[in-house]
Predict the structure of Adenosine kinase.
Amino acid sequence: MADLRYDILGVGNAIVDVIAPCDDAFLTDNGIEKGGMTLIDEGRARDLYSKMAPGREVSGGSAANTLAGVASLGGHGAYVGKVADDALGEIFTHDLNAAGVDYATLPLKFGPATARCLINVTPDAQRSMCTFLGASVFFSEDDVDAEKIAAANITFMEGYLFDRDDAKRAFVRAAELAEAAGRRTALTLSDTFCVDRHRSSFRHLVRNHIDILMANEAELKSLFETEDFNEALSRARAETKVTAVTRSEKGAVIVRGDETAEVPADKVEKVVDTTGAGDLFAAGFLLGMARDLPLADCGRLGVIAAGEVISHFGARPETSLADLAGRKNARLS
């Protein structure tokens, strides 16, 4: 077995996030689905960008945010995802490596531009995302780094990447490599719209290739086509080794065989922006899993990381999560 160099290896859409405040009227006037993620083309992305309020531009993408959280918790992480050979691609690469994440995927040449996600945040802290996937969806089996997968305790895959067949095949290849190396795999369902588009593929992937399933309550119910959360959780318990479900202010529920851990949400003085809450929960939870902590301790790290990121704009932590976990007496090892 290869030497273990990484706690988590992330596989996902490499995206630059543009985050700005707005009101509900802006969403209505521009036909934006509140609280969801809508895929758009490059022309629509340019048009919306020109209408948005001044905001922040940071390297993002769900799994990349998770890996930045892992690094902030003191973990060792790597990432694979596709950017273009352009200015935004260079920004993404620099930002992720500067955050302490090993990222070296070759950029796409002579194709679409680097992906960007336009995130409008209403006063109730709901984020409504319009995403131009650009170069990110041109991730393929050629980009799967077998050496890094073998060196990672858990390979974490982002459901958003599933919009091209090449990416689906890359997912399966990554999972097969992880299994062959005696490592574990994790999948986040990403979004209810994503689940609706790829339900059958996700169900096959979960049954055959995934050790740890990450979802929020709505995504889990969508996956199993039920409005009953307890039924969805029961089916997840039967079909997965581990399932971790976030439930907003209700915290999280984690199941593994006959074991159940319910973790209350971490107290936050004011919720400013829910962007990245699930990504950062995954950071804490998966790092705990990589270090073989009890389920409740894994969940505790997850809610602490999520609580920090929803207290400010942006999907990356603004304080050391390792220090924060220490102040809250949460186990890191």
User: Anything to note?
Assistant: The CA atoms of residues 80 and 105 lie 6 Å apart. The chain is about 40% helix and 20% strand.
